[in-house]
């Protein structure tokens, strides 16, 4: 079982978020026990901003056994089309946000996505299994 991990879950853990930290940590442990963890380059980039330098971010993600799995050209194009469909349906997001890339990556590279932003992903990517901590 491959679980893609969203930035918000990782930040909960690394910042010891008082509301979500323990739940996110426990959910990540369960997912790791059931298989492997991946995060796309977008998540890795977002995580890098939470650490003093890239080496510290890499060390932290490696310690959690979250593998780097970059977005492919196909995934990027799928994210763009999903955004286009959103806009055509009256959606107000005017630019491609990282969430579209993270969702498209999870569909292509994983069996499920661990995130706290389940409403967006369930609406935008109906074929995606979404887990909430």
Question: Could you walk me through the main structural features you see in this protein, from its secondary elements to its overall organization?
Answer:
The protein has a single domain, classed as 5'-nuclease (Rossmann fold, 3-Layer(aba) Sandwich). The protein is 56% helix and 12% strand. The chain has seven helices and five strands, in the order βααβααβααβαβ. It has a five-stranded parallel beta sheet, sandwiched between helices. Helix 5 crosses helix 6. The two termini are 17 Å apart.
Q: Brief description of this entry?
A:
This protein is an alpha/beta fold and 133 residues long.
The overall pLDDT average reads: 93
Number of separate helices = 7
Query: In order across it, which strands form the biggest sheet?
Result: 3-2-1-4-5
State the domain count: 1
**Roughly how many Å is the radius of gyration?**
14 Å
Per CATH, what is the topology?
A: Rossmann fold
Order of helices and strands: EHHEHHEHHEHE
The tally of beta strands, per DSSP, is 5
List the SSEs and their pairings.
Elements: E1 2-5, H1 7-14, H2 21-34, E2 36-39, H3 41-48, H4 54-63, E3 66-68, H5 73-88, H6 98-109, E4 112-114, H7 118-124, E5 130-131
Helix pairs in contact: 1-2, 5-6
């Amino acid at each position: 079982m491959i679980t893609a991990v969203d930035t918000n879950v990782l930040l909960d853990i690394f910042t010891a978020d008082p509301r979500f930290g323990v739940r996110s940590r426990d959910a990540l442990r369960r997912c790791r026990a059931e298989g492997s963890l991946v995060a796309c380059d977008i998540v890795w980039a977002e995580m890098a901003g939470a650490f003093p330098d890239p080496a510290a971010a890499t060390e932290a993600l490696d310690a959690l056994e979250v593998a780097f799995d970059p977005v492919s050209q196909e995934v990027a194009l799928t994210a763009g089309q999903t955004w286009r469909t959103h806009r055509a349906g009256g959606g107000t997001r005017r630019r491609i946000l990282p969430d579209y890339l993270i969702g498209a990556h999870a569909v292509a590279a994983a069996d499920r996505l661990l995130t706290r932003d389940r409403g967006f992903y369930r609406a935008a990517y109906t074929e995606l299994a979404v887990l909430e901590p």
